[in-house]
Amino acid sequence: MEIIELDPADGDLVSGAFEVRRAAHAADCPDNPAPHWGSFVKGLINPPPDEDERHFVAVEDGRVVGCLHTGLPNRSNLHFGWADLHVHPDHRRRGHGTALLRHFLDFGREHGRTELTLESLMTWEDGVERSEAGRRLLEKHGFKLALTSINRRCAVDALDHDTEQALLDKAAAAAGEDYEIISWLRRTPEELVETMARIDSTILAEVPLGDLELEPETIDAEIKNARADRNAAMGITPVQTVARHRASGEVVANTAVFTNDDPEYPDAFQGITIVDPGHRGHRLGMLLKLVNLRLVREHRPQVTHIWTDNADVNAPMIDINVTLGYEIVDAFGEYQIKLAG
Questions:
Q1: Rg of the Cα atoms in the chain
Q2: Given its phi and psi angles, is residue 93 left (phi above 0), alpha (psi -120 to 50 degrees) or beta?
Q3: Which of 89, 155, 160, 225 is the most core-located residue (most Cβ within 10 A)?
Q4: Residue 245 in contact with residue 252, Cβ under 8 Å?
């Protein structure tokens, strides 16, 4: 078995890597959204602007048996790196996962990273039971649980009309007249790019990070537009709603759902919902998510379910999601190892 870097132009290896992901999903978490071929391929040839992504495959007898996707931030948090790792179910318990994990550790060291993370599926409360093999592999190699995120799913019509309208009316009344609600699909309107970059820069300072040591990012118009370019290239359409404070003109709350342009792909993904600390207590999070949900139903009729994950300690957002009808599926444990600098 050898580990080689995946060349996006090598069709056989790309197909093999996707097949590993597809088979691993079918074996490990078939209840969760399936990997999408178009997004996978387009993601390989359109890397994110703020991370250096590399893809590696484990090849045995000419067949891809495992894959490793790594990401190294290139603007901030230069001590950090992450990866996800998959081994084909037919080729497990032969050392391939260990070899890929060690490759990631060596790769992180070579690039001066001192904090590396990998996710592992977990069973959570009365959700779907998940294997502990991934957790055991990570712990065996010195990784420790740093953050637990609960994975939930919600049907777009989970609430009946009257219940949804009552929640919307209550949230709108709490928000009052101090905020303008603005929605769009795809790119952020040009007049909002600067203020949206400001609120995006606060995300890592506001969301629970557990034991992860991450600094807030500085997002500017250039990086925000570059991210929008990548979404468009990958066939991803954000459905977004924000609250703009009328007195200051600043966006002070934001939510987005990321949808696939494939008309047969039924799943969408809730991005981070954030409210500026100075504007909390007005039910803006609930208001924006309800307005945005209606926008998803109107403009993305192929979407039947929205998926989200929240840190297990993020009680305010969990309460909102439970009210909206989100139900537990499983959880993700983010496991961390610290390397000598």
A1: 20
A2: left
A3: 225
A4: yes
Q: What whole-number distance in Å separates Cα of residue 5 and Cα of residue 336? A: 24
What residue type is 192 in one-letter code? L
May I ask the CATH architecture of the domain 2-113? 3-Layer(aba) Sandwich (3.40)
Q: Is 160 exposed, middle or buried (0-12, 13-18, 19+ CB in 10 A)?
A: exposed
State the CB neighbour count (10 A cutoff) for residue 35. Answer: 16
Report the pLDDT value the prediction gives residue 205, as an integer from 0 to 100: 82
Query: Is the pTM for the entire model greater than 0.85?
Result: yes
Give the residues across from 155 on adjacent strands. Answer: 305
Distance, in Å, from the CA atom of 153 to the CA atom of 303, rounded to the nearest integer, reads 12
**Is 90 exceeded by the pLDDT of residue 315?**
no
- How do residues 207-223 score in pLDDT, each as one tens digit? 888 999 999 888 999 99
* Residue 172, both tokens: 């709108």
Phi/psi of residue 288, nearest 5 degrees:
-65, -40
Contact 32, 330 (CB under 8 A): yes
DSSP secondary structure of 193-220: HHHHHHHHTTHHHHS--TT---PPP---
Tokens representing 127?
């959700």
Q: Return the CATH fold of 154-330.
A: Aminopeptidase (3.40.630)
In this structure, what DSSP letter does residue 74 have?
A: S
Alpha carbons 153 and 329: distance in angstroms, whole number: 7
* Helices of type H across 9-155: 11-28, 37-45, 96-110, 133-140
Whether 154-330 and 2-113 are alike in CATH topology: the answer is yes
Phi, psi of 274 (to 5 degrees): -135, 140
Cβ atoms of 311 and 147 within 8 Å: the answer is: yes
Residue given tokens 């990866």 in the structure block: 83
